[in-house]
Description:
Helix content of chain A is 38%, strand content 20%. Chain A is α/β, with parallel strands linked by helices. In chain A, strand 4, helix 4 and strand 5 (112-117) form a beta-alpha-beta unit. In chain A, helix 1 packs parallel to helix 6 (149-161), helix 3 runs parallel beside helix 4 and helix 8 (242-252) crosses helix 9. By secondary structure, chain B is α/β, with parallel strands linked by helices. Chain B has helices at 33-58, 73-80, 96-101, 106-113, 147-160, 179-190, 222-226, 238-253, 282-289, 293-303, 309-332, and strands spanning 88-90, 131-132, 137-138, 167-172, 195-201, 204-205, 208-209, 229-234, 259-264. A 5-stranded parallel sheet of chain B has the order 1-4-5-9-8, sandwiched between helices. In chain B, strands 2-3 form a two-stranded antiparallel sheet. In chain B, strand 8 (229-234), helix 8 and strand 9 (259-264) form a beta-alpha-beta unit. In chain B, helix 1 crosses helix 11 (309-332) and helix 2 runs parallel beside helix 8. The relative contact order of chain B is 0.19. Classes of the chains: A alpha/beta, B alpha/beta. Chain A binds chain B through residues 25, 51-52, 54, 56-57, 59, 61-62, 64-75, 77, 92-93, 96-97, 100-108, 139-140, 142, 163-164, and chain B through 88, 121-122, 124-125, 129-131, 133, 138, 141, 143, 146-158, 160-161, 165, 167, 179-180, 183-184, 186-187, 190-191, 344-348.
Amino acid sequence: MPTFTYLEAISDALRFEMKRDESVFLLGEDIAEYGGAFKITKGFLEEFGRGRVQNMPISETAILGAAVGAALNGMRPVAEMQFMDFVTNGFNQLVNVAAMTAYRWGIGVPMVVRGPSGGGVGGGPFHSRNSEAWFAHTPGIKVVCPAFPADAKGLMMSAIRDNNPVVFYEHKGLYRKIREEVPEGEYIVPLGEARIVREGRDASIITYGSMVHESLAAAEELEKDGASVEVVDIRTLIPFDEATVLASVKKTGRVLVAHEATLTGGFGGEIAARIADKAFEYLDAPVKRVAAFDSPTPFAPTLEKEVLPDKGKILAELRNLLAY
Amino acid sequence: MKTKAATQAGAKNGRRTAKNTSKDTQHSALLSDEQRKSIFLHMLQAREFDMAMLRLYRQGRAFGGVYSQIGNEATAVGSAFALRESDALFPMHRDIGAHFVRGQSLEALMLNHTAREGSMMRGTDGTGHYADVSKKLYGNVSHLGAMIPVAAGYVLAAKMRGEDTVAMTYIGDGGSQVGDFHEAMNLAAVHKLPLILIVENNQYAYSTPNTEEFACARLSDRAIGYGCYGETIDGTDVELVYSTCLKAVERARAGEGPSIIETVTMRMRGHAEHDDARYVPKELVGEWEAKDPIAQYQAFLLKKKILTEPEIETIRKDLAEEMNRAIDDAMAKPYPPAEEGRKNVFVD
């Protein structure tokens, strides 16, 4: 089995799907000759030609609208947002056109919107946002937030084959940071299946994206103190694998929900509410949340570290939780 | 650059009057008499459907917005008539006439507009927002301009597969100020996409007149900026609309890229029926009443002896009966079962 970075795994999935299915094509800014701002599509122009690797003007509305139109006409477009922050410029196309087509017309809009999100890399307020909750709050859109290279590959393949609009959040801080063995060729991770990435007995961390890694590091540290912490990576927000989350909570009785996105209105609130609603009598402590401070993501390293969650903040909250 | 700055409709700093548009119906040598009869029928269908919706609204039997298209029949029918069946149409809310050109029935439209069981959108949405894939007809959303990039993407896909499909879509003078217009037309021009944008300038965006919407002389002048074709014409003359659009369709199919066709008309009623449009000067409406698209075309067809008075009478009578049956059928049906509201958020 080859070892791939998170970034290479996403490229591998795109390449495999484009070879498998002629209707899959890419559109985005600087994705052809340049290979994309992060080089996800490096070499794709040479391999697949200009027809299937379409450079676009800086026009997120046109990119996402064109993806909807192409999807209505038999294609499976994968649209790159150079940074996920810029999806705001095409928001209307996603939430009002793509998301409402199945419901109103009974027609699928098989399109993937993918791009780098997340902070911790000095990107500042306009290149760091974690906006997944916006789309989780939009019925008709599936939302994917992988944490590992193999999952990124398997989830991307599922996203491309799905007949609904999928917003696929890649964490830019993970692109080249982690490397693992990734199955060759076709590898499908279904949307809507959480994964227990670490088993434990004393507490559960329900998390996704970059915070999976911070949670694992925190759990490992607590292991030294004799505490056994389970880490559940939900992998997709929509569909949400409630069953796996509830099973973990019922097993451990203590739960911490962690995400890099800001706290208020974040998807963690939804997870906490489901747990409170459906596993209340199993809880030995209040559901705790670790998330970013409710501010834009600042530029200076000191400020950014202050507002974003990390292993240390998770560890502190876990200790409180276990002591409750 | 194939930009054409010609205008056959007068432009006076954004405000058009009926007086400075061409008075004589322009007829296209490209149309057979049978085609002319169908065009006339589709215009009548649009008017009849419109009048039916206004009646239902006044009787309290239609809910939601009722957006009259009176005055827009020539633009909607003439433009859609220039397409082939294999082409795609993305109409706006005042383009009911275009639906009939694509073969839509009064019954299906009435069911949908009144949100009854068995309607195309199962009660999830109303008006012309539906899609009918068998007719390559894709309705709009309420966010103006949003379907222009979608139509561009539709033909981008067709072009990738080597098909010669053309897409036609519409926007109003109001919706032309939405950013989607710019992004989509620029993209279409850059990629030489076979996209026709009909800009229906009916003078008012809700209550806002042209003079407060844009500062260019003609909305088709924007074509210069995009490097595509643009033309402004009288939107009440159905054969002129048809022949202008046909040329645009032919250019598109030949790989010459998109066109912006501005059709100058007048919105003869309010934005929707709740709006009495008292902000529109009476004399302006009066001028445009004299240019009623259906009356104009009827006079032409009679003059050319393509139809006779009794024949027209029969067509109108049959249509009215068909419309009444469609209303009765729709009103006899219940609203869709409540559980429909929980279905199809996603497809399998």
